[in-house]
């Protein structure tokens, strides 16, 4: 039976292409949604861009027919804009609210006998729709369930002689039944003795299991403290891998390892011209409003976590705090290390740089696509984040851009990923991550 999908505003703000995501069914957009798009279109952020893009899509469709009648789409469905001002809704619903006008539209179509579904990313809107007897769904395109997220490594149990051969020859064909992804790490364990182990990576170029080339690396004095950190350093120092994602809770060392390896590849090895670090401007809790000063002075507040990690790295190399401050200041002033807000990356071309995007879980799939597509020739992109700590009200642990990239890129030769589980910041930090 043909379905009718009534779209909430937040669906189009999440992805303006949502109009075309319902195959050969009918898409209905209440007039209240158009009014809200008009309000959001002036915003200078992702919501504003999506609102403008959605309006452009509808304007292009309008040229093919009358939207109030319904215009056929290439996928066999239709899209219709429905005036909702005069539609009835049960007592207790404030009709001055656009959300309730959208519900009134869905209820009106249901009374006409149509197979109606409300599509909304707003939990309260879905709850109210259910109270009215209207089937409802979240818009789950691009969702990756956090429990099913690719970990980047696994264990394999093999006969001890095969592990000995691997250690001697430095290469081994991957077991066909393992189904390894390119650049996936493997902890090899002997069947006869589980204490006999070896670390390997399914090499993206050789298509074989190979040893870790940077197993003894200590970038800028930072030593890996667990197995996953060893894997992360391998990915970060490998020139052939151009996109790396590091996922983990607070204190697992994501940003620290990325910075240390970035400094190693930029300052010591001169593989990249500069280390560019960026993060979304997304406050925890209530925003403190506009900040005075120049762009760099404004950014210093948002980028303080980056400076904290830089200080930690420098403290391991210099005992004098004045030397630490001077070294950090030199790196910033010489622009060997450049710190920038995500806002200023759009439209740029970034060649031969080590680009770290911290807190990437607060980015939408479209924003992450925009950032990665900025990478010019010879650039390495590192995305770090914790999908359990999301401050963007329009995203969750399943719909954020970081998870989306991991799911889309796994198995590609230029991509590597690892989930870091153990917090190494402090005993208190580890306990907080576990209990809270």
Automatic annotation (TrEMBL):
It comes from the Bacteria. GO terms for cellular component: cytosol. Pfam families: PhoH (PF02562), PIN_4 (PF13638). Residues 3-127 form the PIN domain. The keyword ATP-binding applies. One of its GO terms (molecular function) is ATP binding. Keywords: ATP-binding, Nucleotide-binding. PANTHER family: PIN DOMAIN-CONTAINING PROTEIN, PROTEIN PHOH. In the N-terminal section; belongs to the PINc/VapC protein family. This is Putative ATPase related to phosphate starvation-inducible protein PhoH. The lineage of its organism: Bacteria, Candidatus Ozemobacteria, Candidatus Ozemobacterales, Candidatus Ozemobacteraceae, Candidatus Ozemobacter.
């Amino acid at each position: 039976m043909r379905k009718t999908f009534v779209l909430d505003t937040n669906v189009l703000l999440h992805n303006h292409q949502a109009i075309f995501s319902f195959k050969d069914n009918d898409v209905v957009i209440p007039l209240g949604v158009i009014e809200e798009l008009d309000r959001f279109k002036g915003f200078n952020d992702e919501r504003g861009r999506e609102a403008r893009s959605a309006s452009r899509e509808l304007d292009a469709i309008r040229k093919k027919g009358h939207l109030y009648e319904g215009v056929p789409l290439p996928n066999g469905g239709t899209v219709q804009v429905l005036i909702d001002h005069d539609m009835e809704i049960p007592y207790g619903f404030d009709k001055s609210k656009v959300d309730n006008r959208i519900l009134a539209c869905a209820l009106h179509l249901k009374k006409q006998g149509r197979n109606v579904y409300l599509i909304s990313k707003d939990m309260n809107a879905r709850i109210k729709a259910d109270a009215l007897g209207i089937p409802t769904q979240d818009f789950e395109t691009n969702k990756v369930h956090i429990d099913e997220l690719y970990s980047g490594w696994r264990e394999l149990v093999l006969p001890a002689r095969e592990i000995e051969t691997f250690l001697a020859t430095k290469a081994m064909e991957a077991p066909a039944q393992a189904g390894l992804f390119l650049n996936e790490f493997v902890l090899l364990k002997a069947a006869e003795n589980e204490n006999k182990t070896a670390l390997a990576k399914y090499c993206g170029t050789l298509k074989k299991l190979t040893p870790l080339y940077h197993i003894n690396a200590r970038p800028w004095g930072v030593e890996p403290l667990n197995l996953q950190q060893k894997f992360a350093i391998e990915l970060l120092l490998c020139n052939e891998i151009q996109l790396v994602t590091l996922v983990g809770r607070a204190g697992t060392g994501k940003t620290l390892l990325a910075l240390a390896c970035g400094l190693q590849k930029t300052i010591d090895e001169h593989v990249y011209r500069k280390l560019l670090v960026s993060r979304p401007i997304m406050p925890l809790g209530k925003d403190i409003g506009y900040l005075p000063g120049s762009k760099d002075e404004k950014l210093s507040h948002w980028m303080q976590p980056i400076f904290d990690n830089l200080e930690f790295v420098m403290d391991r190399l210099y005992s004098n705090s004045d030397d630490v401050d001077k070294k950090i200041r030199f790196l910033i002033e010489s622009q060997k290390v450049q710190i920038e807000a995500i806002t200023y990356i759009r439209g740029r071309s970034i060649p031969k740089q080590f680009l770290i995007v911290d807190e990437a879980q607060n980015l939408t799939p479209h924003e992450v696509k925009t950032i990665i597509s900025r990478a010019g020739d010879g650039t390495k992109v590192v995305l770090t984040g914790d999908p359990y700590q999301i401050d963007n009200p329009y995203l969750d642990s399943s719909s954020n851009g970081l998870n989306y990239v991991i799911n889309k890129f796994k198995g590609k030769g230029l991509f590597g990923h690892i989930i870091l589980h153990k917090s190494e910041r402090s005993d208190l930090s580890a306990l907080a991550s576990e209990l809270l």
